[in-house]
Amino acid sequence: MNSLATVTRLGRPVGAPVRDPLDKLFTRISEISSLPRVAQRIVQLASDDNATVDDLRRVIQTDPALTAKLLRLVNSSFYAIKNSVRDLRTAISLLGFHEVRNLALSIFVAEQFQKSGDHNAYTRIGLWKHSQAVALMAQRIARVSGRGKPGEIFLAGLLHDIGYILLDQHLRRHFCEVLDEINEDTATCVVERRLLSFDHARLGASVAAKWKFPTQIVDAIRYHHSPETYRGEFVDAVRAVAIANHMATRAGCSALGVANVEPPADGVYAQAGLDPATQEILWNDMTAILSDVDDVL
User: Fold this and answer.
1) Residues 201, 135, 32, CA angle at the centre, nearest 5°?
2) CA–CA dist 215, 76 (Å, integer)
3) What are the C-alpha distances in Å from 159 to residues 64, 194, 224, 273?
4) Cα–Cα distances in angstroms (integers) from residue 164 to residues 159, 178, 240, 264, in the given order
5) What is the pLDDT of residue 297?
6) 210 CB-contact burial (10 Å; exposed 0-12 / middle 13-18 / buried 19+)
7) Percentage of the chain modeled with pLDDT above 70
8) How deeply is 187 buried, as exposed, middle or buried, from its count of CB atoms within 10 A (0-12, 13-18, 19+)?
9) Closest alpha carbon to 88 in 100, 105, 76, 106
């Protein structure tokens, strides 16, 4: 029997020693559910200040299927490019390093949702749309506030709920128990901690760290529900993702189909450089962002 299937409601395999049971579980999940090497390399380029256009092109070209999908998306009506783009060098020169890198990773993440896994109000496609919306809004927040690197913050937003993907794929029965218990009055993290002894943010961050993701992305995953407790270096990314997560959910694009994400603590918006007038502008932008997500989809 798969050892993951024996996880109890305490988050511990039956018969396993009490010592570091969650770390043992998270390590096991990271070993059997790693992103393809190409995707991991693309994520790691986010923290490499010396990465070049040719570095990105060479990484993407090692995966012919990814290259074909990316060029098809670049040539879609969404980008409205007049002349057909036939190679990655041209695509990068037209759209930019960060845009092509983020598109490539989005393709990998989207592939995690190809199979049906619906349960109650939750759908995998709904989680994908939420992840995209949070990524785009977090990037928008970084640009408007002038804080953090928008391209890297996009990746943090795209991957912030990777813990849900891992739960869905490897702890499906327990994940469905969580879905059965959640409602608009109770935050999902509260239910997860009660049933599993950990939540998706902790799981996602642990596995992302084991996959050697940049610290900025790991921290945004870990603290996107509790930015006020974060004391690390990448506070701009953590705040942007937390705010974007709440905004997307409030706009009707929730991760699990239930609008139960609590707003960031008092002061987080101001600390992120967003005054009331700017917040209003961002709320108006959310409609356009959701429309963009549907277009890409």
Assistant:
1) 45
2) 33
3) 23, 24, 11, 23
4) 10, 11, 20, 20
5) 66
6) middle
7) 91
8) middle
9) 100
Which residue type does 122 have? Y
Position with higher pLDDT, 42 vs 79:
42
> Is residue 62 pLDDT above 50, yes or no?
yes
Burial of residue 223, with CB atoms counted within 10 A of its CB: 0-12 exposed, 13-18 middle, 19 or more buried? buried
- Has this prediction a pTM greater than 0.85? yes
3-state secondary structure of 80: coil
Q: In angstroms, rounded to a whole number, what is the distance separating the alpha carbons of residues 203 and 27?
A: 10
Identity (one letter) of the amino acid at 292? D
Distance separating alpha carbons of residues 250 and 152, to the nearest angstrom: 24
CA pair distance 259, 121, nearest whole angstrom: 11
Distance CA 280, CA 212 (A): 37
Query: Which two tokens mark 31?
Result: 């070993």
**Predicted confidence (pLDDT) per residue in 256-289, tens digit:** 999 999 999 989 999 999 999 999 999 999 999 9
295: part of which helix (H) or strand (E)?
Answer: helix 276-296
- The more confident residue out of 142 and 4 is 142
Q: Is the pLDDT of residue 2 over 70?
A: no
